[in-house]
């Protein structure tokens, strides 16, 4: 077996996914696997196969990669890798851990056969009580917008037979640990924390969805300490499902809103670390942006966001 500089759990996954004895590229940053090899494994076509640009195409799936980038596209949705792609011997490669964490889940999704009426979903309206969150130029508080979006999404999901709980159903302050504990106590199958974004730049706009950073990989959000990047959290057992939940919700939000795609990203947010189910955190847009801030003020637009979140959850559970 190849000696890789990644955690033991990643080595086990490599065996499970069929790359324990496969040739790979030795490049800076550890052992890597060529995208051509991945295409062969999954019987994918490569309509674009250049040293600096590769597209993998299969039934209902298209993945596009560029050289020296931590980003790729999955069916048009911007996704993130833990490490930049690199070219070796004229072939575009990705890190083995990126194959496991960000590519393999698209081709090994678990079959979910839970009936809707038996599936429990927990929606988490961000902030609340003394924590207002972001505030738009028109005075709309994030805590108000997120609660309304979650209440609307809960109604839509309940109509489909799902059992839905909210971590708060009023303007109450809920600690982050208590939000996670609530979801676990309810035996949730899905957890979605809903937020509105803000930035110093008033030009910042678009939607992004966060999943917990896979074990052994760097986050897009800077960690408080190097040790934090090495720690394994309970929710890392759902790394693949976290990614697919984030992908489905982000895809639905982009389709419904036509907003700018800021991508599916990864961070070790406290509320995502210790869930006993797949979980994500959605940033539905920027209250600090004049255009998006005005949209959030519309009940109709918040209904659109709620519908998209419900659609994404439903697509993931199918």
Task: Walk me through the structure.
The protein is 35% helix and 25% strand. The chain is an alpha/beta fold. It folds into two domains: 8-107, Copper Amine Oxidase, Chain A, domain 1 (2-Layer Sandwich); 116-317, Aminopeptidase. The protein has a six-stranded mixed β-sheet with strand order 11-10-12-15-13-14, sandwiched between helices. A five-stranded antiparallel β-sheet has the order 3-4-5-6-7. Helix 3 packs across helix 7 (239-257) and helix 7 runs antiparallel to helix 10 (299-317). The longest helix is centred in the C-terminal third of the chain and has 19 residues, at 239-257. The radius of gyration is 20 Å and the shape is globular. It starts with 7 loop residues before the first helix and ends with a helix.
What are the SSEs and their pairings?
Elements: H1 8-16, E1 25-27, E2 30-34, H2 35-41, E3 45-50, E4 53-58, E5 61-66, E6 71-74, E7 77-80, E8 86-88, E9 91-95, H3 96-107, E10 120-125, H4 142-159, E11 163-166, H5 176-185, E12 190-197, E13 207-212, H6 226-230, H7 239-257, E14 261-267, H8 270-273, E15 279-286, H9 290-296, H10 299-317
Parallel strand pairs: 10-11, 10-12, 12-15, 13-14
Antiparallel strand pairs: 1-2, 2-9, 3-4, 4-5, 5-6, 6-7, 8-9, 13-15
Helix pairs in contact: 3-7, 4-10, 7-10
């Amino acid at each position: 077996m190849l000696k890789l500089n990644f955690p033991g759990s990643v080595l086990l996954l490599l065996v499970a996914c069929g790359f324990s004895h496969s040739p790979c590229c030795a490049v800076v940053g550890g052992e890597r696997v060529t995208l051509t090899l991945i295409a062969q494994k999954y019987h994918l076509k490569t309509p674009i196969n250049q040293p600096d640009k590769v597209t993998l195409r299969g039934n209902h799936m298209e993945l596009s990669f560029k050289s020296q980038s931590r980003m790729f596209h999955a069916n048009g949705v911007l996704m993130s890798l833990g490490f930049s792609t690199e070219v070796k011997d004229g072939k575009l490669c990705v890190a083995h851990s990126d194959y496991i964490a960000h590519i393999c889940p698209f081709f090994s999704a678990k079959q979910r056969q839970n009936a809707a009426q038996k599936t429990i979903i927990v929606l988490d309206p961000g902030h609340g009580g003394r924590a207002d969150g972001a505030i738009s130029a028109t005075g709309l508080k994030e805590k108000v917008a997120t609660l309304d979006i979650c209440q609307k999404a809960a109604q839509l999901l309940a109509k489909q037979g799902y059992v839905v709980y909210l971590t708060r159903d009023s303007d109450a302050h809920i600690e982050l640990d208590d939000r996670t504990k609530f979801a676990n106590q309810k035996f949730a199958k899905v957890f979605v924390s809903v937020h509105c974004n803000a930035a110093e730049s008033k030009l910042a706009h678009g939607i992004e969805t966060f999943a917990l950073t896979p074990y052994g990989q760097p986050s897009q959000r800077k960690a408080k300490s190097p040790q934090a990047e090495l720690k394994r959290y309970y929710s890392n057992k759902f790394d693949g499902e976290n990614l697919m939940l984030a992908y489905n919700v982000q895809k639905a939000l982009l389709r419904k809103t036509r907003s700018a795609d800021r991508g599916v990203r990864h961070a070790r947010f406290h509320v995502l670390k210790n869930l006993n189910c797949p979980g994500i955190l959605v940033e539905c847009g920027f209250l600090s942006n004049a255009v998006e801030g005005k949209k959030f003020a519309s009940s109709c637009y918040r209904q659109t966001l709620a519908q998209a979140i419900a659609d994404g959850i439903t697509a993931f559970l199918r």
